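Sample 3 of the quickstart, ligand adenosine-5'-triphosphate:
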Amino acid sequence: MNPNTEQALQPQLSVRDLEVHYGPVKAVKGISFDLMPGRITTLVGANGAGKSTTLLALSGLVKKQATALQFNGRDIRNLKPHQLVASGLVQVAEGRATLTRLTVRENLQLGAYTRKDSAAAQAADLEHIYQLFPRLKERDGGLAGNLSGGEQQMLAIGRALMAKPSVLLLDEPSMGLAPIIVQDIFRTLQSINQTGLTIFLVEQNVRQALKISDYAYVLETGNIVLEGSGRSLLGNDKIQQAYLGG
Ligand SMILES: Nc1ncnc2c1ncn2[C@@H]1O[C@H](COP(=O)(O)OP(=O)(O)OP(=O)(O)O)[C@@H](O)[C@H]1O
Ligand SMILES: [Mg+2]
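Result:
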């Protein structure tokens, strides 16, 4: 095996035995998973399975235990939320959490709060995001509160991209959006991924999510019960019955 191949097989984020408790409630019960660089990995599962809790743990927003949390070769178990963002692990805020009384541009600029590079570099990235989301560019000086639900979700993604992530975490970006907008969001995630960004997606929209996923894990009451390529899980009988109404 040549050294490049070996490099490509290293996970970018490696999670071992992650546990989260809310008081006496064990929400995540010692799960292990990997995010491979440049891939879309998805965590699917029913209501209350522990999906959001897993993301909150990765973002440093809930107390957790793990035997390992390695991100780009670094132990991130003790990093604070802003340090995780600065290191490149960035969670997209909920669409409705855009700052409605700020303009679209101001929301995007806020995404760069942990960056220490030049204003010029940040302005260039903002232009890049406007190319990705022409609709946001049109609304540049308008209040975020006047955007539609789908546009606010795009803005939330754009704001996360302004932090220059190497891994993007998303918690149900399709929630509450019309099917046609959902398609748009998933297409956007694919095109962001094609620029080399690693994506970790949490979804209840199992069919659509598996379609765009290189790899997926199924979470049930705090445990990973199944994993495989998106394609293999789409064809799996258990998944068909439990999540795809088959
Ligand atoms: N702040 C909290 N305090 C106590 N229990 C919580 C808290 N947040 C979540 N839980 C519980 O932890 C478990 C996992 O919740 P979590 O929100 O992670 O699930 P989820 O898979 O994201 O569900 P959903 O699909 O509804 O978003 C559930 O039993 C939930 O009731
Ligand atoms: Mg959730």
